Task: inverse folding
């Protein structure tokens, strides 16, 4: 601000000086024309016309001959020329503006105009004192020197006040942020009422806190549920191994205890693998290697893996004709998702388990359904959340991660999942194919 005010002051000073000089030059030119006209017309002398053409102590007029002698002039410039020989020669050719700090006849600085007059080589000289101009400039300089610092002080105070008012919401946000020591406190940053950038910043930070709290809450729930699921097989393994270590155990009892411990080890391995898949999905790093898959072969291979288990349960696995439908997907991940769906149907469903695939409007839908009652109504909206299990499923050893993995695999392929009664489906991008009948078409997600 100091630099700006200094530049403005210099500009104003120079501009006023230029305007005063221009006004003085116009006055000198007009008076020189009048004096020249008076001389050329052969009228009265300058001394006689001084009252009309000059002002006492402020201006003068002088007529100088070719030899430098003063032919006529107003007192006290009626005897000695104010021009040097060089200036006189230049004035005979064209009008010349001059400035003299002090003339012998005058103590003050003068502004002069010399111009040709008549055809005899005479020169008319008119002059005016620069006292009024210098006084005006001195007065303006005093105003700028005093007013500039005052204006700078006022501008600094106003800028400090405005900046403080503008940044006060930032200070409040910082103070409130220091008090938010943990997520889940429900406290938020104060938002300024003005609809400005700080208001937008506050809202964005509060939305970020909401997302972080929701994420932290999910993580806490995930860790708690995972800890619970891990604790159960570990406790069973410990019990079986402690029983095996006791004396007096028969070989059959030892084999049974070790077999039970091996089963729990397999369960722990599956649970760890499922948790790793979900963790990668959360980070957006669930690896998929798409390739062109024939769904007929994929469904048949998945069904064959569960044929023996279904036969033990006295149930049937059926694969509907996929009509040569193909899809770009990761075979291992898609088999994992279908295997989880079939496992759920055999574990919690009833009757025949049917695997199918249809193509419609550029999407491919894979589905697994059984003849059971399906998901409880209160569970449908949360079926694909982690560790979600119906009450009747809790006693059957499931961890509640199967459908969550199915959903993660679908999202990794830019697809989606859904539930329709006892049918669970996966929708993936694919080529157009046969139209899905209304009875089999999955409903849109809630």
Result:
């Amino acid at each position: 601000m100091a630099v700006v005010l200094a530049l403005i002051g210099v500009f104003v000073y120079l501009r006023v000086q230029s305007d005063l000089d221009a006004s003085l030059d116009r006055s000198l030119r007009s008076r020189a024309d009048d004096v020249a006209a008076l001389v050329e017309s052969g009228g009265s002398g300058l001394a006689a016309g001084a009252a009309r053409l000059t002002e006492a102590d402020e201006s003068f007029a002088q007529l100088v001959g070719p030899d430098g002698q003063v032919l006529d002039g107003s007192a006290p410039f009626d005897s000695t020329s104010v021009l040097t020989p060089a200036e006189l020669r230049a004035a005979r050719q064209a009008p010349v503006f001059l400035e003299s700090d002090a003339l012998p006849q005058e103590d003050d600085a003068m502004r002069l105009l010399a111009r040709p007059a008549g055809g005899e080589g005479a020169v008319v000289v008119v002059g005016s004192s620069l006292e009024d101009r210098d006084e005006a400039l001195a007065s303006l300089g005093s105003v700028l020197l005093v007013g500039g610092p005052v204006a700078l002080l006022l501008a600094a105070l106003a800028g400090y006040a405005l900046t403080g008012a503008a940044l006060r919401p930032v200070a409040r946000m910082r103070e409130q942020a220091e008090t938010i020591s943990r997520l889940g406190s429900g406290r938020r940053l104060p938002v300024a009422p003005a609809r400005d950038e700080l208001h937008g910043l506050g809202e964005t930070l509060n939305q970020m806190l909401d997302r972080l709290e929701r994420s932290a809450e999910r993580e806490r729930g995930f860790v708690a549920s995972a800890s619970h699921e891990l604790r159960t097989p570990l406790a069973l393994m410990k019990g079986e191994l402690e029983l095996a270590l006791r004396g007096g155990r028969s070989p059959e009892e030892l084999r049974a205890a070790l077999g039970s411990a091996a089963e729990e080890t397999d369960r722990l391995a599956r649970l760890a693998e499922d948790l790793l898949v979900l963790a990668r999905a959360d980070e957006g790093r669930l690896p998929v290697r798409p390739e062109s898959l024939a769904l007929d072969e994929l469904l048949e291979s998945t069904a064959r893996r569960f044929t023996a288990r279904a036969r033990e349960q006295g149930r049937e696995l059926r694969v509907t004709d996929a009509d040569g439908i193909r899809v770009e997907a990761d075979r291992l991940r898609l088999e994992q998702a279908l295997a989880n769906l079939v496992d759920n149907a055999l574990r919690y469903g009833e009757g025949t388990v049917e695997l199918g695939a249809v193509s419609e409007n550029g999407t491919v839908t894979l589905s697994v359904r059984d003849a059971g009652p399906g998901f409880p109504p209160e569970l449908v909206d949360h079926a694909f959340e982690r560790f979600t299990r119906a009450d009747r499923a809790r006693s059957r050893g499931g961890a509640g991660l199967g459908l969550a993995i199915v959903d993660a695999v679908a999202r990794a392929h830019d697809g989606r999942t859904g539930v329709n009664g006892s049918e669970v489906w996966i929708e993936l991008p694919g080529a157009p194919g046969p139209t899905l009948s209304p009875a089999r078409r999955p409903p849109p997600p809630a």
